[in-house]
## 1
Amino acid sequence: MAQPLVKKDDDRDDEADYSPFLGIEKGAVLQEARVFNDPQLDPRRCSQVITKLLYLLNQGETFTKVEATEVFFAVTKLFQSKDIGLRRMVYVMIKELSPSADEVIIVTSSLMKDMTSKTDMYRANAIRVLCRITDGTLLTQIERYLKQAIVDKNPVVASAALVSGIHLLQTNPEIVKRWSNEVQEAVQSRAALVQFHALALLHQIRQNDRLAVNKLVSSLTKGSVRSPLAQCLLIRYTSQVIHESANNNQAGDRPFYDFLEGCLRHKAEMVIFEAARAITELNGVTSRELTPAITVLQLFLSSSKPVLRFAAVRTLNKVAMTHPMAVTNCNIDMESLISDQNRSIATLAITTLLKTGNESSVDRLMKQITNFMSDIADEFKIVVVEAIRSLCLKFPLKHRSLMNFLSNILREEGGFEYKKAIVDSIVILIRDIPEAKESGLLHLCEFIEDCEFTYLSTQILHFLGIEGPKTSDPSKYIRYIYNRVHLENATVRAGAVSTLAKFGAMVDTLKPRVFVLLRRCLFDNDDEVRDRATLYINTLGGDDAVVETGEDVKEFLFGSLDIPLVNLENSLKNYEPSEESFDINSVPKEVKTQPLAEKKAPGKKPTGLGASPAGPPSTVDAYEKLLSSIPEFANFGKLFKSSAPVELTEAETEYAVNVVKHIFDGHVVFQYNCTNTIPEQLLENVTVIVDASEAEEFAEVASKPLRSLPYDSPGQTFVAFEKPEGVPAVGKFSNMLRFIVKEVDPSTGEAEDDGVEDEYQLEELEVVAADYMLKVGVSNFRNAWETMDADCERVDEYGLGPRESLAEAVNAVINLLGMQPCEGTEVVPNNSRSHTCLLSGVYIGNVKVLVRLQFGLDGPKDVAMKLAVRSEDEAVSDAIHEIVASG
Amino acid sequence: MESCPSIKNILLLDSEGNRVAVKYYSDEWPNNSVKEAFEKSLFSKTQKTNARTEAEIAMFESHIIVYKFVQDLHFFVTGAENENELILVTVLQGFFDAVGLLLRGTVDKKEALENLDLILLCLDEIVDGGIILETDANVIAGKVASHSIDAAAPLSEQTISQALATAREHLARSLLK
């Protein structure tokens, strides 16, 4: 050998760093690859060079296009060698290089020769390589050989063809589907893996034919499938069939359940587990059906193999969410897993126990967990903290020990996410369990004495400001808060000043003392802290007398900012300093729906339309400007709301029209954005004829035609309706586009003088209740809810009937009401059986409305909903109920 | 596709987390730096665990990962979050034992690198594009080492006896030191 791969002896001393590839370099190896071109091939040497090339690729080195092509061509020369070992390396190398289509042709003939060779190894590998690099055209040429290979008596060859078939099905389904006879034959193969691959391919070929899958499953579940892997597949297909047939026959025994249960006695653990898991995941599984599955999983819990323990505890953890009682039998085994070496297993065991435990076992469990917490990673701790939070909500009487536990772990070392999870949990417990409030607040106070996270300190200070003054002895918190003013960074200091002011505002007896403290803050070296102190001293009254705090001061301190911060930022940027001071009421309150409208736009034709979707200036501001510039509409008053554009034509039609609904107190204006997509036409005098016969409360008062609509430059025409003042009238409108068409000479662009009158039918348009609702969020829903008068609350329950899913039902109601979801409650977690959604908005007439929706699954698909509405006007609360009742 | 068990990657790393041989079957890791980052964090998460006698398991970045260590080599197999853990561990065990047979009992980084061609062929025989090709270590090793796949069985026996011989030799050498 010219260049020995293995250097002996001299490297013995530093064996640790020794590698046969030490100092390897791409350029040098590419040079070496020239040996592939030698007339007298040295198979050993060539193999070594390929190994080096593969090593480089494996380490993440990349070849340029030129280098790859060069190597590829050199490698193809090696097909001349008869050496089997070398040929194997050549196959792997070709797959790694993934040659381009024009390069593939070079090796096709060599590979096709190998594919028909007598040597099984050649046949198997050549099939895999060829199917990997080939495209559809070549496939028809080799199809015959592949079909033969599928039923080849050598299992390796058959498997190679079947696996290649699975890959090819993604790109050339019509060809692979022709092989189903051969594949069916291979399912009966005696070789385990062939059976597995054939079953996988057969199912994929037929997966869209439910009847065929059903037949496949029924015939195979009777026979004996040899391979454990194939048996696992069969279990999966069976559960699919069970799932799909579940809707048809509700009563009686579940079909194929016996098969699944029989698999629990299979000799391969893989199959037992697959079957047990399949049973636990059955739709609406009964406890009788669950029992045998739980029993085998329980046995796995005490296995010596971590993987088995993990698989079992993970599955039981999931079962515990829906059937906690079924898992209680395993509690003793679970408890011994708390000390498991594998912390994933221990965490899963603990959280399962927390779900299945009863009130009496809580204390014992907490003792065990305390020891355990010190030696797991933060990510696991967060899972445990969340489990404890839900446990506490389940057993409010146990709040003392659980709260103590939380405060203990809060004092220990931990990263931000972990601490945040604990603080969030304590905050939730304080909110939901009144008895836990005082102790919880004190725990939080102690925590901020020594808290390294600014974010958490400010959050807690804010929370203290809201909850602290309502406690029996607010004064005891002052010390903790004022300490922050001394010891912390500017952000926390500013937060502490605000909190102090809140105590001053709410607790009149504390006011003089708070003043003293606030005055000291006037000498702070940070602007924000000083500004806040000054502001609060002035708003709170300024003198040391014990005076009651005015309502508007309280509103200022505690009221939520009902303006989206983005809008406020924009308005402040646009504000030009002048005599007139900035008016916060001028900031639009509507949460922008802009991103949604933009998402729709790319679906349309790219010609000009994409650039500006029918050219409407879409912010509320711009609409308002546009409308007030039209004399006919000038006296309609203040624009309440503009809807997102609604398409009235299909995509790709001659004329594209969408409509924006502008709602005023006593009027509605439809703004039709029209685009002419025919280059040979010029439209003139464009109007929309609106038939309002299905909208009784509306009467047309004005319309503004569009004088001319040339190709590809959007224009607007308007129609205005009068409606009863302040009433959320609804109705349907049918629309007809009327215009005069003039031919345009495409070469000169000049229109002919004479035009023809023509009409074009548009889709219907509806004014719905949601159009009278502004999406206005509140930052703290609970506060906002509580400050509203409970007398104006209206509660009722509704059955929504069968629904696709809980999430779908929640979305439907949100869309119906057109309100802003708060605190991310529009997201429904997977698999949940109930959900609470909080909505807020402003109804026409500027009435604030808050809605609390509680959804629950009633039976398998039926959704029930409890709707609680609070608003500033009880008539509006009733109106909201009416919307839902009629929706 | 999801009903068929699939393997996302197979990794063979050394005791410092560097690659010996890796193979990715999923495009969740679009480029080399992402792959390396994944390997690094996976390695640092698992290195302190004792996965020498039995295969261990972990949830990691919403994958299920089974792993086993021997000497200075760390074997990993990654699958989807909802994959049957026992299928994954069968693949891991197949890879692990096949490498043991191919390296004739001396399973360490040096030996693995010196026989990298065998390791790469071994990976090639276990999984094809994410689909499990073979899990029986004897068959895998047979296919890699033999010059004809039909003669798998006798060869593996031969390898075991040779492995024993090598082990004896090693023991003798260490006693002499």
Note: The longest helix of chain A spans residues 228-245.
## 2
Amino acid sequence: MDLKLRKPPETSSRASSTMVNDISKNLKPDMPFIQFDSSSLGYSVGQDRSMSEVSPQVVNQSHCFYAPERETKIKNHLGPSSVIDWNPRLMLSNLSFLEQKIHQVQDIVRSIISQEDHVVDRGNELAAQQQLVTADLTYIIIQLISTAGTLLPNIKNTLLSTDPAVGQPSSAMGMNTNLSSCGGQKPIEILPPEVAKSSEYDELMKDFDACVGEGDELIKCLNNAGAELSESMPIDDHDAKDYDDGMDGENLPPGSYEVLQLEKEEILAPHTHFCLICGKGFKRDANLRMHMRGHGDEYKTPAALAKPSKEASSEPPIIRRYSCPFVGCKRNKEHKKFQPLKTILCVKNHYKRSHCDKSYTCCRCKTKKFSVIADLKTHEKHCGRDKWICSCGTTFSRKDKLFGHVALFQGHTPAIPMDDAKVSGAPDQVQASESTNGMAEHTGFNFTGNTPNDAQSLDIKGADDCQGYFSPMNFDACNFMGLDEFPRSVYEVSESPFSFLSTGSFSFIQRHGEN
Amino acid sequence: MAETVGNLCRKMHGGEGFDTLTLDLFSRAPSPAPCSYSKPAKRPRVDGAVTMGKDEDRQNPFDFLSEEILFLILDRLESEPLSKKSFSLVCRSFYTAESCHRRELTPLRSGLLPAALARYPSVEKVDLSLCPTVTDTVLFSVGNCLRSSLRSIDLSRSKGFSHAGIESVVENCANLVEMNLSNATDLSDAAAAAIGRARNLERLWLARCKLVTDMGIGCIAVGCQKLKLLCLKWCLGISDLGVALVAVKCKQLRNLNLSFTLVTGAGLEVVLQLPYLEDLALVGCLCIDDGSLLSLKHECKSLQVLNLSNSQPINHAGLSSLLNITVGLRQLNMAYCCMVTHSLTSSFRKLAKLQSVKLDGCEVTTAGLKTIANACVSLTELSLRKCSGVTDDGLSSIVMKNKGLTNLDITCCGNITDLSLANITSSCTSLITLQMESCTLVSKEGFRLIGQHCHLLEHLDLTDNELDDEGLKAFSGCHKLSILKIGICLKISDEGLIHIAKNCPKLRELDLYRSAGVKDAGIRAIAHGCPQLQITNLAYCTWITDASLRALSKCSDLNTLEIRGCPQVSSAGVIAIAVGCPKLTKLDIKKCYYVNDAAMLILARFSRNLHQINLSYCSITNVGLLALASVGCLQNMTILHLKGLTPNGLAAALLACGGLTKVKLNSSFKPLIPRPLLEHVEERGCVFQWIDKPFQVPFSSLVQETCT
């Protein structure tokens, strides 16, 4: 239908219009969805159920441009993959629901056929029925794709080993390819360049650079331990603390891995990749490669731009762990109960947190100090929301933490604000309202998505919301569930994904044109 | 004044232990009233005998009594507030002695408290539970006047104070040990924080302080580490966190009441780790369920008293887990809890020290009771009140095993028969309390057995039974009987009462509610034979006349009299009571149609301690009510269907009676009384109950008239 309506509401007009036009020119009619789907899934790390719960949301916004005949193909293709799914019940219920839906459509089509024989002037009704069919089919497709989407994190683990045909190119391309490969068979040929060049714009997507890959080490790490993917991905993400502490559970026998120890200067160096020609430093290897293009055409070849970690997957993986250079630290290899650090990033964060000055001060509360800037950002999110105060001045975001503190220290008392009548009730109310907000959002999605019977209303809504193809709600629900700890307002979240997606697609299309 | 001195001397002569003091002082000091000496300063200690100064000294002879002696006298008067008052009026030194001696203050109205505090500097306990409104100003003055001498304050029925008032009391009174703030529903965490500063607090009641949250109780837990008793009943703002903090900080806790709170098994687990915990009440804790009890591990050996009533979610699995870790239990209350079966009671076996079991309102099986009988042999108290399923078999098995049983409550156990009674009376001869209201299958022979075997009985409740005069006669051996409730026993008559009167001189309470066979002769005998009678209920004993009341007026300790629906009683009888019973606090003369203003005038003159009165259907007018309003203690009035009462009279009475807390009025008066006046009275702490019942024709009185 009208493609123009699909443009994201917040992207810059130039970028979006080019994108839409290019899509319509260069790609097959069914492509945009696949592309969109895979790329959107690409950074939805650690997402599992939420995807399937939320996915029907996509339906009413994007149903307008799917060719009905694709449904069976996709189904056939995706059918077997449900076997290796980790939640087969959910999958089965989804599939049986689809089956039901298909029967419904069949009935409608049959009735259309029978009407064609003897009815002449019932154009209106026919149009309505066609609309209904379109809506239903779109719904089915979306449902199928989202069902397949729930499999993605699992497929990418298994594909590497089980499916050589897909695994070979995908491992060369890193995880993005893996993800995209499950969207369908055709896209693989088209998508790799896009994904390979994705590193070009990763400066632009500070918040979501997770899936692009920092450099060789990380990719290696990803390949080695697919299961730990979600832990180590958000490189500069605010919640970096989680994965630093998260690896204590690992129990590698000593000697089964190689221990590396970086020097202090190396750890604290702002840049780790340097241009051999001009000497400019970069945090990431990919950024360096992008930079190298400026030094001559020989750096622009796909080989030069590709990530230099191909061979890692074919060789037996060497498990590498890191030691902290600070002697006496538990993370130092000399320590009796040495606990290695998993990645270089972990080393950096650990060293800064444990052995460096806390130089970043929260400008809001002026008391909390951090040595890792991401920690400061995390804190700033919650700063001022601490309602539970001890007489010693320490604040807590949770009541049980305060009571644990009071129980531990002699003489400390819970501090009651002067206008306690208000404040004592307030925190609970705040929490309650937050949670209800969250609830409202989720139930809202389910409601709009999971009412297959009123296809008519779905259709109308879809027509109205065609531009909501990239709706902020959609992103909020799909992509932030796993990452974002706190429910935020829709508008707050919407900005970054938008800029990311539009610029991402934009740059891809540009590159495409260049080549 | 002379009269009061005479009163004192009579007390001394007649009293116990002051025979050595002979005070024939009247003749020499004819007018002791206005003391001629300002201050007796310090006097030499006088040993027992009184050395008299010469006449020309014109000294008040009482001044020679040393303070020690006066204090000893006052100690003897402790139980008689009226005599103490008389004592203090003898002379200045007596007045001073009484002021210094008094330790407890229970004011009726908080307005007079500052003056009272100035008079009694060494008061340790201030009980403000009779004052409906206590403002912060009053609490400031309490704190300022009493300072460190104050040890206990009771605000359990007062409103109108805030955390500021509590703060001032806590700041000024460093030795505060006991605080009752129950029912202070608008007290917030700020008040709790103030309480937290009372370092020496040992006993604290916060029942129904619903606004106090974990934060507040946290302050108390940290501040008051000497707490031994804490009542958090109905504190709905408090969760496991607060309770756990209390258990962590207040290690001295002996007595903890968590009834009707939201505490769960997690909180309970921490509480049970308190090293000295003896008494734990968990009434209606619906958040504690079987699952959480099953995980309890830590043994709580110190626990002696456990109240689990109304805890529906607990079943036998959880209970046995709980009883496994509380092996030192002496008293267990499981009223309205769950079905008492074999599996439930088999966990009683571990409780070797168990003495008291209360299963009120539970569904009971015979097997369950038999298991109790097998498990427990040293029970002294058993309550099966309103239990369904109590059989002769089950009950007999318990009483046969537990011969030391002293308290037995089988109220409303409708299935038991004479067989049970035979077993109870033959094995439990040391019964002190027996309550068996409405045991309808027990025959009159069964009741005779009680009197024949249980001579130690002190408290007997046989309301609504087949008891007859022969049964009462059998109680001749129960000389210690002090409470006898034989209401709705239609077969008893004067004859039985005469036997009681002859043999039970210690009777303090007699309930004859609707025992219609009772007449004047019986009451006269009781009044004569039981001079210690304090509480009597003669409601709907329609044959009662003024003669009974005249006889009862000889019982000078009488404080509660109910003669509701005795139409033959007139003002003369009430006057006799008013004059003869100065301690009268509760009087119910509803439907005594012939009681009129004359009785009220006398009542107002003599019964200065009257707290509660029901005047409905009496022939009382504005005059009587206004007179009554002058009784300062009056708190509770029910005034329905008074023919002679006008709105103006009622308004005047309400205004005059400053201590009222509850008034029941006919709703027809509501629009007739000025709104501001009602608001003013309500502000003083009075609650109005507007009753909308139609006037009942005094049919019985008409019948009486035609009969006589």
Note: The first strand of chain B starts at residue 104 and ends at 105.
## 3
Amino acid sequence: MSAPVLNYRTRGWLRMSVEKQDTLLKMAVLSLAAILSFSCRLFSVLRFESVIHEFDPYFNYRTTKFLAEEGFYNFHNWFDDRAWYPLGRIIGGTIYPGLMVTSAAIYHILNLVNITIDVRNVCVFLAPLFSSLTTLVTYHLAKELKGPGAGLVAAVMIAIVPGYISRSVAGSYDNEGIAIFCMLLTYYMWIKAVKTGTLFWSTMASLAYFYMVSSWGGYVFLINIIPLHVLTLMITGRFSHRVYVAYSTLYVIGTILSMQISFVGFQPVSTSEHMGAFGVFGLCQIHAFVDYVRSRLNKIQFEVLFRAVISTVAVTGILVLVVLTAMGKIAPWTGRFYSLLDPSYAKNNIPIIASVSEHQPTAWSSFYFDLQMLTFMFPVGLYFCFTKLTDENIFIILYGVLSIYFAGVMVRLMLVLAPVMCILSGIAVSSMLSTYMKQIDDVKTEKKKAKFEGNYFMRSEIATFFVCVMSVFLVMYTLHCTWVTSEAYSSPSIVLSARGHDGSRIIFDDFREAYYWLRHNTPEDAKVMSWWDYGYQITAMANRTILVDNNTWNNTHISRVGQAMASTEDKAYEIMRELDVDYVLVIFGGLTGYSSDDINKFLWMVRIGGSTEKGGHIKEHDYYTPAGEFRVDKEGSPTLLNCLMYKMCYYRFGQVYTEGG
Amino acid sequence: MEVIVKVLVTLLVVAAGAAAATYDSINRDVINKKVDRKLDISSQLLKITNKITLENGGSGAVRSFLLAFTRQEKENLSYLNAQSGGTVLKFGEARVQEHRDIEFYKVELKDALQPGKTVNVEVEIIMTQLLEPYPATIQQGEKQLVRYAGNHYVLSPYTTTTQTTTVTLPSPNIESYSRLKPTTHTDTSITYGPYDGVAGFSEDPMNIHFENNSPFLAVTKLERVIEVSHWGNIAVEETIDVLHIGAKLKGPFSRYDYQREHNSYSSIKSFKTIMPASAKDVYYRDEIGNISTSHMRVQDDAVELDLRPRFPLFGGWKTHYKIGYNVPSYEYLYSSGDHYILKMRILDHVFDDFAVDELVVKIILPEGVRNIVLETPYPVERLPDTLHFTYLDTVGRPVVSVTKRNLVESHIQDFTLHYQFPSILMLQEPLLVVIAFFILFITVIIYVRLDLTLSKDDATEAKMRVSSYCEQVHTHHDKRARLYEKLEEELQKLKSSKDVAQSQTATKKIQATIRDETQAIADIGAKIRADSAEYAEKVLELQKLDKILRDSVLQQLTNVEKLVAGKMSKQQYMDADAPLHKKKEEALEKIKSILGNI
């Protein structure tokens, strides 16, 4: 008989206003994304150990250790006699110190509060830490572009995108690990500066730019894309005082700051790569001046003046540029940038650049492998940006289009593409979801309205279906990313593992065995000759002097080593005496089936060896059989079978029984 | 101050010199009636066991006797122990004026030896690096030969009536050995003697050149760090440098031969380290990372670790590694009140028949430890105490360090460390964490509430004010909602108790409070109007709906009262109640949607 008791309470246990709930939700999603991006990079640490990966990170680790122990001034003045014997290398002036300074600072701060973590662990976990920060910056960047929803989706996407993970797993202690963070931070600050037109944000942008310059050579991309953005704004007639303030401040402060990095030095005012930025800076001033003049003159007067000035300026500008380039004041574009514009340039001209696998053009499959659904969402995101064209959307469109071109040219630039893919896909996914989610919401409250708006057939059902499909896509993306990270990007490459016959794990630790033997059982001043790939690892792990390393700055010297490897034993002996070599290190994978050994790289040694004057007698075709094959069995070419590398690798190999018999 | 120290040091030196200058004399009354010497040269160590039967041939009681060593033996002497009938005898260094070239140890007998009586003494001696690889360099496939140069007679200051020496060898392969009749050679042993009536200090060179492929591996430096935590854990870490001190490798090392032919006799592929049974979280690494080639076997009384260096060790090769583990503290740390005793091994097993050139033990105690007293089973050199800083430390943890040279397996003995630790200090670390988080949160709270802008932003401020007002509206409405619930309860109660008077007094009170809350919300609504008309409208709307809700509830109440008083039939009541309930429901729904938006 009694009526059911009503629930008067309007709020649950979370006694919060809508805004607070909103903040809480955002914070929760963001922190989870940041934690996720950190933890999914730890596969290799859990599977193997907390160890530095690959090649370049070993150099970075060694220099960081030096910096942490010896202080910044000693680091700055460091002449490294362990590398490039007998030339040596001035480390302080030939590296981007941002990475080392960051880790050393973290190390010192932590030790100051008695958190006694060693330099190696700081180095190993730096990249995951910075990818967490990247997640946060991506959120803010996408929020500026589209809104918090897009920001959250983009943040979650970048947390696990394989294209970025490939370079930032724990132990992959390389410049790119922090550079992506710096890059996105600069973009965020730049967009803020363009939006607000304040000196504060512009200065922040230049500081972020400075950090970027100090950490990666890829800053050149940044100093070209921002002027390009400004230029596009000018052409589309969107140039305003905001853009003027933002760019003028960024260019002036950013350039002065970037010149403080000794490796960069006077490049920002002397090389062609930076000329675009300078030109746009000039244009900015002219444009602003023209705007000012226009506001003071009538139309006809202005037209005359404008044409006269434009033609004179253009002619003199081009003349000056030509003269300066001819006089060598402006350095011509370096090889790597030519190969960016013309993918075949490097292969034809500089074998050392072409020999690096990460400088190869990207295969189609690797786009899908590294980005999965982002590849398809990217154009959708572009579409949404075009539908509502703003200053900042133009920027992200430019960034997206340019980076997709560069990523196609060089595999390693996939890294630059991944963030913009995430941002654009974030915009796409969030725009579509919010559109369709609204349709679902309508069902309950506005059923009556639906009758009048009968144009949409079964609209809530379709909307529900669409949201489900989208969720499936997102789940697939997550699964794919986790799988790729775990399978492809989480092996330290210094330790190899394989499955035994009984399913147990076999670990090949031969690299470290060799390096450790060198470290403890050779004289302190022994010189080790090896192909340049192993240079950084030998100096870091074996602590011995090497002839060439991964900083391939002297082609002649590398070529000399290539010649020694490719020559007959007596010729090689002469070269090695000349270079003062005590030990020769070769990696041979024939026994264990390790494919990227020195025989695999041997043709590059021949090519690079033969590319200089002294190696004129080394010709690539001598190392092929008459039929044009590269064979290492008894039918191989005699030149190959008698060269030092072959003899060292296959010494008594005929007596060994391998799995293949 | 410095002067005083210098004076003190000088005094000490003088005193020490004076002590050393006192010479012992050889007691001619003592006779070695029988000496049975066992020389074990089957490993890299030289282990000597002398069973001596001493006789007092004089007339006075004998309290001590001397043991003699050559200078080289003394330098390589690692361990010396003398015991008689199960009790360990005390001994100390001694000198004899007439025999400056010979080093002596003076052993105190337990009981004075009376004239004509005999006593059995067993002396155990371990010496290192007395076996010389000969030839000094060998190729990979060759066997390692070593040479031992000693004395056919037991070096003793006393006349020996009869003595025999048995030499134990690692294998039957002997290149050559010196002969002093009677000498017998069986499979893996050579027996010299018995020799009768040997005068004191007799020497006759003994040479044995034999095959010894046992590992000649010296630990050149061992640093053992014991970190004690009062939270239940003791972490032990040993940093070890090992060097193969056997015959050096001549010529190249062939991995192929090494893998296929197993002919590298003297090289060391792996060795076993035994750790305490409770050891867990064991690691084995070096400067460049984890060494993946090791196996661990947990046994009842120990954890056995099969360590394989990164590369096989040949003569002259060295390596360096770290090994570490945790043990629970209850096995080693005893306490009574504030007094603690740590009882652990100074040195632990490295591998069988090991010899350590230099040992450094560092014991890191918790912060705040005082009155440290260290007792060691044999003399060690105590290094100055230092401080160690690690997680959550403020003043640093005291570190007790000791060092000693030339140790062998027999030195695996316990040290005892006494110290005081006020248990209140256990709270220090958790408190530090709490304070750190507290400061962090406070900073965030202050930062969020801090307004650092120079110019006032009215729009934002108005927005913030409105949101704070809305928060108040929510609070008041929550109170009101609870009051409505109470009202409903009263209504139900009335239905069952039918006590109108009591119900009326109760509901009056509730109604008054509801009015107060409603008034409060209305006041806030007026305030909101100053900043945002939109929100003020919403509050008004809320108030209107609330009025409907309240009226319906009150109407229901009146109806029930009528029903109870019999002024209304049940059917009438039911008919009146249903639309009221519906009204209430609708009003509530709308209230919820409004409150969801502000």
Note: Strands of chain A lie at 79-80, 89-90, 496-499, 505-508, 527-529, 545-546, 583-584.
